[in-house]
Fold this protein.
Amino acid sequence: MKKNLGVTAVIGVDWGDSGKGRLIDDLAQEADIVARYSGGSNTGHTVNNSYGKFALHIMPSGIFNTEATCVIGRGVALDLESLIEDEFEQLKKAKVNWKNLSIDPQCTLTMPWHKLRDGIREKFRRAKIGTTGRGVGPTYADRVERIGLRLQDLLAADFAQKLKLELNYQNKTFGFKLNFEKVLVQFNRYAKIVKPYAKNTLDIIHMGIYEKKNILFEGAQGWFLDIDGGTYPFVTSSNTGTVGIWRSFDLTPNYINNIIGITKAYTTRVGNGPMPTAISGPERDIIIEKGHEVGTTSGRTRDPGWLDLALLKYAVQVNLVNQIAVTKLDVLSGFTKVNLCIGYKINGKDTWYKSGDAQELKKCEPVYKIMPGWKEDISKVRQFKKLPKNAQNYIKEIEAYTGVKVTFIGVGPKREEVIYA
């Protein structure tokens, strides 16, 4: 995986929270360019390396390779408050340099009114989405409506006029009391800080491909939160799979050599929406405690479920995944048996996931293959053949069902606690 990086994408093939930050931090050590293409401050990548432990939301997880160019593509909802006030400060304290950061001027800015609108809209939903309240949905909505302020607007001479016009509209329409002068001062300060990093990221990516550089695309969240293919309406507001790379960088999937689909050894979901393999009872509590299943962004407890191979296979197929990364296999150590979902039934009849249909998935009953567990501590294992036999069989079953090889197995939270198969 690391020796032949080429043009590689890491995408979640579940509901996110699968350890992308940790894998990307590892792979980024071999990359020339690391590019974030979707999501906003509603996403969180936890990185635990020699510099310390970090919770990143906008900043690409590859920032710890100081020789790599880190790119924030136009598909990202750019929350400058998160990036500057939080993430820059985390990196500054750890003495990590971000001089190689590039941000596309076409990124849509998450503004104060977006965060206010996010909270109001959630209160009036009949079916609560479970939004993080970071304003990402309203940011994308304004982009589609063609009224969003972009980074290039912030850096333009007439930003104050554009800001005043839009802020007045938001105050009048939604009854907000946002102060124009206060917001202007805040964003003028942000403009001075980010101006050196505003660059055409399409040129960076396409030139990198022409020069045969190692490029790593960093996804956010997971495929089943995709605005189109996910469990609508319990989804995010961007394209989380390979199509998101296309939209952010004008780059069709045929340019990508390796598409790594990442999932935990079990399933989790934070927020609302159906999850057929949800676990209850003592096993649920064990997984939450051992897996530290609390959201990086939301602080909410993630609901665990058995690994859903029916969903995993669908995500693998539609995103052209040719490698699978499985994290947190160590969390399952100690269970006498582990379940793998290999299909669904509705009223006794076989069925499959219908793209974008949460209501149909809610009716599905999982069909399980029950496999024997293992009790051994596997955190120090670095070769697949040295895993307990039952753990090996668990991974082999994932490969057999999806038809894709597992090339990365996480056996602990640290960068070195991994098996490359």
The chain has three domains: 7-106+198-259, 108-194, 263-420. Residues 353 and 361 are 6 Å apart (CA to CA). Residues 108-194 form a domain with the Adenylosuccinate Synthetase, subunit A; domain 2 fold (CATH 1.10.300.10).
